[in-house]
Amino acid sequence: MPELPEVETVRRQLKNKVIELTITDIEVRSWKSVKNDRYFVQKNVGQTIKDINRAGKYLFFELSRNETFLICHLRMTGRLIFVPANSKEQIGGGHSLSHPPTSQPHEHTRIIFEFSDNSHLYFNDVRKFGYIKRADKSDVTEQRSQLGPEPLTVDYTAERLIDILDDRNTSLKAVLLKQSDIAGIGNIYADEACWRAKLHPGMQAGELVFDEIQRLYDATQSVLADSLAYGGTTFEDYADTNGEHGNFTDRLAVFGRGGEECPRCGHTIKKMRIAGRGTHVCPYCQPDNRA
DNA sequence: ACTCTTGTTAAAAC
DNA sequence: GGTTTTAACAAGAG
User: Within 7 Å: CB of A241 and strand B?
Assistant: First the structure.
């Protein structure tokens, strides 16, 4: 489940590997993964990757031809695996922690990019919800416009968070997950941020008082920054561009730890369903006072 | 064989 | 009508 720290990790790694490389060939094995664009190959071959940017969980590849881009979203199981030229190394490609790495490509490889130096970029995606699609400048602008503030930039302030939560008649968790409110937070960091802020994710978002919003603001920033520093979280399917797992997984406080002890108070972590998502809460640290 | 899971979007409901 | 909730998507795990 790649969220902001995982997507940013992929972006940083990929930027060091494919910038200024020219696409010499593309094999599309799943046309759904390129949004059924029958010109995907011919329009992209010959283009050079000039830059890679990110907004929320979206990656934007800037190509050499005027104002053309590739927009990539990994959704739940997408991976971008880079294999250097003449690599004999087996890169991780198994699709759960229990499956061993395999070579590239494999049965879940959906798109293969070949570069002029004979390196390859593999888009692997078990469930085929992720995609890489062609876009122009206005498509990128449109996509960015649908996203709320980036939590690790100056756009994200406590005052902005007050406005986001104000008068909202839904759960705190639903707001945290909504990309048009705050970009880049998914199920893992929504639960972790609530735990750090000592807030119950089922609270009505509009009922948070100033002190609680300040805690939530600090928590969202710190959990994303901490995870990024550890290369993100691997819970089910995420891997970086080398096929390596993220190292924040062991530092999760509540996510995926239903039935275990809360690392802060020792009470048992509960798993419940909030906003249609599996949600992890310490009932003692995160009292549900008003819900 | 059936249920559950994930992020996003589009449809449905409020 | 703007806001919120639910269904759908694919494929695998349990």
Answer: no
Please list the pLDDT of chain A residue by residue as tens digits (291 residues): 788 998 999 999 999 999 999 999 999 999 989 988 989 999 999 999 999 999 999 999 999 998 899 999 998 888 899 999 877 555 554 444 334 345 888 888 999 999 999 999 999 998 888 999 999 998 898 888 889 999 999 999 999 999 999 888 889 999 999 999 999 998 889 999 999 999 999 998 999 999 999 999 999 999 999 998 987 766 555 667 777 777 787 788 888 888 889 999 999 998 888 888 888 999 999 987 654
Protein-strand C interface by C-beta, 7 A: A 32, 95-96, 99, 108, 126-129, 168-171, 174, 275-276
State the nearest residue by CA to the C1' of B6: A76
A97 CA, C13 C1': separation in Å? Answer: 13
pTM of the model: 0.91
Nucleotides of B under 7 A from a protein CB: 4-9
Evaluate the omega torsion of the peptide bond into residue A201 and state whether it is cis, within 30 degrees of 0: no
